[in-house]
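R.M. (postdoc): so does anyone remember the format we settled on? I'll just put the C-alpha cells first.
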C-alpha cells in the first residue's frame, strides 16, 4: 500500500491533484479543503489511502493523518464507500464528524449528499464506540490564506461536489462576511455547504 506521497504538485483540478513522484504523475482524489492548500509547482506531502477494486486502483489524498484515519474508519460502516467517506470529510471534517456521531446528531450527518435519515442512524450506531473524541481545531496549512482566491476555490469546490453554479455563487456570497483578513478555505467551504443544505 502507498502510505503517503511526496513530490511536486503538477496540477490541481476540481476533485484531484497530480503529484509528480520520481518522474511519475500520481493522481490523488482529494476534498476541496485539501485541494485548496495545494499549488502547482510547489512540493507537497499528502497521506494517502489506496482503494483497490477489480477494475481500478484509486489513490485518495489527505491534508493530514487524522483525515486519512477518519476516511478509513467511516468506510467500516455498512453502506459507506470511499466516495461517500470523502463527501463526509468534505462537508463536515474529522472533528465535526466525531461530534455528530458521539452526539447522535442525525441532522448534521444528513447534510452530506448521499446520507439519509436511516443511513445516518446506521453510521452512528456502527461508529459510536470507535470514532473517538474530537482532537481539536486544525491549524490552517501554509498557503491557504489569500484575499481573493478563496472565492474561486470555494465556488469550484461546491460545483465539484455537485451543486449548480448559481447556488454555489449564492453560498459564496453568504459566507463572504466570515472570510475576514485571512480566510481559511476549508472552513468557508463547510460554511457554504451548511448554507446550501439549509436552503
Amino acid at each position: 500500500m502507498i502510505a503517503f506521497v511526496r513530490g511536486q504538485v503538477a496540477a490541481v483540478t476540481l476533485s484531484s491533484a497530480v503529484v509528480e513522484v520520481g518522474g511519475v504523475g500520481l493522481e490523488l482524489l482529494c476534498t476541496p479543503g485539501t485541494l485548496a492548500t495545494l499549488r502547482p509547482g510547489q512540493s507537497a506531502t499528502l497521506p494517502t489511502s489506496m482503494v483497490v477494486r477489480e477494475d481500478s486502483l484509486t489513490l485518495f489524498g489527505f491534508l493530514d493523518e487524522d483525515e486519512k484515519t477518519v476516511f478509513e474508519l467511516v468506510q467500516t460502516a455498512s453502506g459507506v464507500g470511499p466516495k461517500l467517506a470523502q463527501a463526509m470529510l468534505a462537508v463536515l471534517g474529522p472533528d465535526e464528524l466525531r461530534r455528530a456521531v458521539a452526539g447522535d446528531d442525525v441532522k448534521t450527518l444528513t447534510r452530506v449528499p448521499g446520507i439519509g435519515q436511516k443511513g445516518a442512524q446506521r453510521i452512528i450506531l456502527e461508529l459510536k464506540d470507535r470514532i473517538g473524541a474530537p482532537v481539536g481545531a486544525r491549524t490552517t496549512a501554509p498557503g491557504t490564506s489569500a484575499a481573493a482566491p478563496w472565492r474561486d476555490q470555494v465556488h469550484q469546490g461546491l460545483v465539484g461536489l455537485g451543486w449548480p453554479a448559481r447556488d454555489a455563487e449564492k453560498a459564496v456570497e453568504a459566507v463572504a462576511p466570515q472570510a475576514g483578513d485571512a480566510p481559511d478555505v476549508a472552513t468557508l467551504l463547510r460554511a457554504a455547504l451548511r448554507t446550501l443544505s439549509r436552503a
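R.M.: ...and that's the designed sequence above, right after the C-alpha cells. Also worth knowing: The CA atoms of residues 9 and 41 lie 5 Å apart. Confidence is low (pLDDT under 50) at residues 137-147.
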